[in-house]
Amino acid sequence: MSADEKRNEQVEEELKESAEAAAHDKGGAEDPSENSPESEIEALKAQAQEFQEQMLRSQAEMQNVRRRAEIDVEKAHKFALEKFVKELLPVADSLEKAVESTEGHENAGELVASIREGVEMTLNLFMNSLKKFNVEQLNPVGEPFDPQQHEAMSMVPAPDAEPNSVVAVVQKGYTLNERLVRPAMVMVAKAESSPKIDEQA
Hints:
Elements: H1 2-79, H2 82-101, H3 110-132, E1 135-138, E2 150-157, E3 166-171, E4 173-176, E5 179-182, E6 184-190
Parallel strand pairs: 2-6
Antiparallel strand pairs: 1-4, 3-6, 4-5
Helix pairs in contact: 2-3
C-alpha cells in the first residue's frame, strides 16, 4: 500500500509541475499579446503608407503617359503633311526652272512673255499655298554654311565671299513647321587657308 501511495504522490507532483509549467507558459505568452494590438496598428499604418506611395507613383506615371500622348498627337498634327510636301517639292522646282529658263529671252516674243508670266503666277500661287501650311523655303545665298540645313555639293574659290559661306544654291531646301524636309543643296566658298568646310558653323 505504501508503494501505491508513493506512486500516487509522485503522479500528483508531476501533474502539479506540469500544470505550473503550463500556467507559466501561458503567462509568458500573454505578455506579447498585450502588445499585439499596437503592433497590428503599426503594421496597418505601414501598409497604408505603402499603398499611398503606390497610388502616387501610379498617378505620376499616368500623367507622364498622358503628356507623352499629347506630344505625340501634336507632332502627328504638325508633321502629318511631311510626305505630301516632299512629293510636291519637285513641282516647285520645275516651275522655278521654267521661270529661270525664260530669263534673258524677254525679246523673244509676246508668246514667251505670256508663258513666263503664267508660270510665275502659278509658282507664286503654289508657294503661297505651301506657306499656309507652314512650309518655308530655304534659299541661303550669302549665309554661313549650316550642315543641319544645307548639303554641300562642292567647294569653289570665291574671293569676294566669306569663307564657308553659301555662294550658290543648286536646289532650294524646305522646312515644315521648322523641321527640315529637304536640305538646300549648295556651293560653298572655299577658305584660302583651309579647304575644309567648317562643320561647326
